[in-house]
Write a structure and sequence with these properties.
Elements: H1 2-11, H2 21-32, E1 39-46, E2 49-57, E3 62-67, H3 75-90, E4 94-99, H4 104-112, E5 115-116, E6 121-122, E7 142-143
Parallel strand pairs: 3-4
Antiparallel strand pairs: 1-2, 1-7, 2-3, 5-6
């Protein structure tokens, strides 16, 4: 399966197999519906810790997470995800969370609320506090890939 993902990554622009079937589904929807390709498995360091996000659009401080029961089996898993999300929101990031039970239409509709596909641009939606990561007056502390 890894070999197939590698071949598809090279062949299909914007394809990222992700680490789960849900991530693959989200990635396919993004590509099929003409949204810009996000950074997959994005690593970020905040004041609260170092994290890896399923998908991120760092230029607009938005991240997407595929939430499945396979990973969230215990209360501690949910606690860690909640703290991570809180840390990122405090830094000015906007979270979008998707589950298997959501329809493709629901996922696309949510993304349409943030990105205008016809105009090819992000919608103006101020979010976060002044001085948060990526905003004037505060250095960026994120980077794609590697060990954040």
């Amino acid at each position: 399966m890894k070999r197939l993902h590698a071949v598809l990554s090279e062949r299909l622009e914007g394809f990222s197999p992700g680490e789960s079937a849900l991530e693959s589904r989200i990635s396919r929807l993004i590509v099929a519906h003409g949204f810009p390709p996000p950074v997959s498995q994005f690593r970020i360091t905040t004041a609260g810790g170092r994290y890896r996000l399923d998908f991120a659009y760092p230029e607009v401080r938005t991240f997407l997470e595929g939430d499945g029961f396979g990973f969230h089996r215990f209360a501690g898993d949910l606690d860690r995800d909640s703290q991570r999300q809180n840390d990122l929101v405090v830094e000015g990031w906007r979270p979008l969370r998707f589950t298997w039970r959501m329809s493709d239409d629901q996922i696309v509709h949510t993304l349409d609320g943030l990105y205008d596909r016809a105009a090819g641009r992000w919608r103006d939606q101020p979010f976060g506090r002044p001085g948060a990561a990526g905003m004037p007056g505060r250095p960026n502390r994120y980077r794609a890939g590697g060990d954040g």
